[in-house]
Give the backbone structure.
Amino acid sequence: MGDWIYRYASFLETKTSELNDEKKLTDNLLYQMLPRTVAEQLKGNKTVSAETFEEVTIYFSDIVGFTSISAASTPMQIVELLNTLYSTFDGRIDTYDVYKVETIGDAYMVASGLPERNGDKHVEEIATMSIDLLTAVKQVNVPIPIENDCLQMRIGIHTGPCVAGVVGIKMPRYCLFGDTVNTASRMESTSQALKIHISKATRDKLVLTGRYFISTRGELDIKVCLISCHIH
């Protein structure tokens, strides 16, 4: 009987260790999909309320000519290309106080100043990260032949208020809403290849730091933001 109890206790200890390891893996995966604070609330069956952030900085980027690249490639090649690109980006952004919101096709979206507020740091965090990613994209090994032998990316940044909250039940997503998101997207869509296009709101914040070279692009009809610039 004593021998049986010992074997059973050993079995329980092994199973408990395995369950703890599985829980850690599950938690790590969940924390990659949602902010940790939000994930903890959902795990506790709590309702996650939408939150207003007075000021954040939002980054958008996409690949120039992605439609043409897709037309000349197989689906597997596109998956390999995007996986290589985003894996490179994901490794780089860990250095900064930013939160990766999502990827949609070739679009990459990052924000700073949420879900944890960081004072005025969000502008510099996104600006420096953008310069870093612009350098990184030139070093990505492209598995398919493309023009100029390297990917060309355009980037857009805008600073302002937004609302963030969890949307959905079966596959909940942490989403951002408001004109700041729309303007950041417009900054990206009207940007140029291998350029970082910033709004006046972002420019005004960066000028105060004195650590960035900013060139004025002129006036563009972007509905919300007329004055735009490039940072280097």
Q: What stands out?
A: DSSP finds seven helices and eight strands in the chain.
